[in-house]
Specification:
With about 300 residues, this protein is α/β, with parallel strands linked by helices. It has five helices and twelve strands.
Length: about 300
């Protein structure tokens, strides 16, 4: 046998396995799913999108997301931030596909829209106050946020017919129900403030990009975005993002009478320039007050 043949074969096997994972992961990033969620008291059909991370490379996915969203015949479409791909080096993305959504659309900005990474902000998060009465994220307002980028993203969203809520609220009538949508500016940028004197409503929904920046607000639904469910969930090994101290949680969280949902998002944070998802597909989440009836 040729010397070192076994070690070389082992290395080649690992490389082939890695290439296979990358190929599957790249394909998985396009494997759009629709997640139905039943929450008592939610009127009509409310669709959640998050973390679009729009770039030239995923425009087809974004356009398909819009088509799939319209096929659900939504009463409202809510988007919980991160329209920018990367950290803003390419500027404001092309948001024109959102014009085609056939429903009222509300959105909040996320940390990428401020050019911010979540890394290195753990200390400031510990200093923040997440109580309802004393909610204060000012320790995170350290001057690192690119406010001009966020302002430009929000202006472009408004041009695309999306109402951006930055520490504000809006009221919509869905059937016979009044829905109040509360949208908070980005938490990691230290700019989230919960608005006072909200009107009464049959259903109150709060949008905030980061789930770790939420408080126990009086709401029926609290909807959040990152961290994409971790993007990679390996059999037996779990989610590598958790190995590095990130919380890759996604899905439904019941908090008393409050329901929190953390979306897996649509886009990705690139891994060596590649958008990869393994066992963690992009999702459109659709909320209804009761499961849709089936025609016999």
């Amino acid at each position: 046998m040729v010397p070192y043949a076994r070690p070389i074969a082992a290395v080649l096997f690992v490389l082939l396995l890695l290439l296979g994972c990358i190929a599957c992961g790249t394909a998985g990033a396009e494997d759009l799913t629709v997640t139905p969620v039943t929450v008592a008291g939610v009127p009509g059909t409310i669709v959640l999108l998050s973390d679009l991370h729009i770039s030239g490379g995923n425009r087809g996915l974004i356009e398909r997301t819009v088509r799939e969203t319209n096929a659900l015949d939504p009463s409202l479409v809510l988007i919980t931030g991160d329209f920018v791909a990367g950290y803003g080096s390419e500027g404001v993305p092309d948001l024109s596909p959102l014009v085609d959504i056939r429903a009222p659309v509300y959105a909040v900005p996320g940390n990428h829209d401020y050019g911010l990474s979540s890394r290195g902000r753990e200390g400031a998060l510990k200093e923040a106050n997440f109580s309802v009465g004393g909610y204060d994220l000012s320790p995170l307002a350290d001057g690192a946020a690119e406010t001009a980028l966020a302002d430009a993203v929000c202006a472009r969203l408004e041009e695309a017919g999306v109402t951006v809520l930055r520490n504000d609220y809006a009221t919509e009538k869905v059937g016979n129900s009044t829905v109040v949508i509360v949208g908070l500016d980005d938490g990691l940028a230290g700019r989230a403030r919960f608005p006072a004197d909200l009107p009464d409503a049959d259903c109150r929904i709060v949008l905030i990009h980061e789930p770790e920046c939420r408080a126990a607000w009086d709401a029926d639904l609290i909807l959040c975005g990152p961290p994409h469910g971790g993007q990679v969930d390996l059999p037996l090994l779990g989610k590598p993002s958790a190995w590095f101290g990130y919380d890759p949680s996604a899905g439904l969280v019941e908090e008393g009478e409050r329901t929190v949902y953390v979306s897996r998002g649509i886009g990705t944070t690139p891994f060596f320039g590649m958008g990869i998802r393994i066992n963690c597909p992009p999702e459109i989440t659709v909320f209804r007050g009761q499961a849709p009836s089936r025609t016999q």
